[in-house]
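Teaching note: in complex prediction, the entire set of molecules is handled at once rather than each chain in isolation. The prompt given to students was simply: 'Predict the structure of this complex.' The entities are:
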Amino acid sequence: MGRSSSVVGTILALWAVLVVPGECHAPFFIFGDSLLDAGNNQYLNNSHKSALPYGETFFKRPTGRVCDGRIVPDFLAEFANLPLIKPYLEPGFSNYTDGANFAGLQVNEMKYHLTLPPYKARDHIMKLHLKLQLSYFEEMQKKLKQQEGEQKAQELLSKAVYLLSMGGNDYMHAAMPSFGKSTPPLLTASYKKQYMVVVLSNLTSVVKKVYAMGGRKFIFQTVGPLGCMPSNRIGSGSKGCAHDVTVLAKTHNIALSKARYLQLDIGLFAAEYANLPLIKPYLEPGFRNYTNGANFASAGAG
Ligand SMILES: *[C@@H]1O[C@H](CO)[C@@H](O)[C@H](O)[C@H]1NC(C)=O
Ligand SMILES: *[C@@H]1O[C@H](CO)[C@@H](O)[C@H](O)[C@H]1NC(C)=O
Ligand SMILES: *[C@@H]1O[C@H](CO)[C@@H](O)[C@H](O)[C@H]1NC(C)=O
Ligand SMILES: *[C@@H]1O[C@H](CO)[C@@H](O)[C@H](O)[C@H]1NC(C)=O
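The expected output is the structure of the full assembly:
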């Protein structure tokens, strides 16, 4: 996660823009995939529950993050003088005035992959898909109103900053034959386009619902150059980055960065997920020089 620093730098600047001066307390709500999950995955009661060991560098204990240190929301919370934003599913967590984290490991938007001929739907049920994250958010909104009163809760939801990271897993499933256990999908251009439209419209529908509940300040973390992730470089079968999946990511980012796509009057920012260093996976054969770091995580696939 060495790449975090440039992302954090960009997003910190955005935060400064999003939070109106003087409005010192804005809660922080987080939706998305493993890049943002602060540990929800470990509280699931189904077979998707995970027990990630990472956390040694900063927390000195496993935290459920797919990262040995802190993740982007942790740095943002610190910048905004908020405590670390807790995973919504953490037992006993019930005070949401500072925000809550709904993100989940290995999340993609589509509960099932699309069944579009000639591709078979993959029976790959994701853990905390975006729709489920939204329903937890709705549940939280009700509790917040009970605790803080209707008016105060509404004020908090309107002032809040919403961070979303979504799409990477969708595109890897769609375009990387090696991702998951499926056979190569041999995607056609039109299928990919259709797929992206669904991913974007799912994401949009969540943003619109949060908007309807009062949310006005959104940060989208863009999807990184997926094809250059170590696992995908290996999976691409060639020596370089996998091409198709990176194109999907770039196209997604362009679409997202156009505020008019959403047709909402909101503060909308895309935080570029840039400078992804090519940190080699620890297990890559012949890789013995760790000067530039090594990738022990599976976030490359999360
Ligand atoms: C998991 O089970 C516990 C105990 O039954 C329950 O309190 C908790 O809400 C469940 N968590 C989820 C995410 O369903
Ligand atoms: C929730 O936490 C805030 C501080 O973060 C505190 O001011 C407030 O009293 C707490 N609310 C409840 C209901 O405990
Ligand atoms: C995404 O959109 C598709 C097609 O409209 C729908 O079937 C699916 O349930 C949506 N998924 C989520 C997580 O919203
Ligand atoms: C390891 O990599 C660093 C940076 O690329 C390089 O400066 C160093 O000489 C390498 N060490 C060995 C033992 O190859």
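Point out the following to students. The pocket of 2-acetamido-2-deoxy-beta-D-glucopyranose (ligand 2) is lined by residues 95, 97-98, 147 (CB under 6 Å). The first strand starts at residue 28 and ends at 32.
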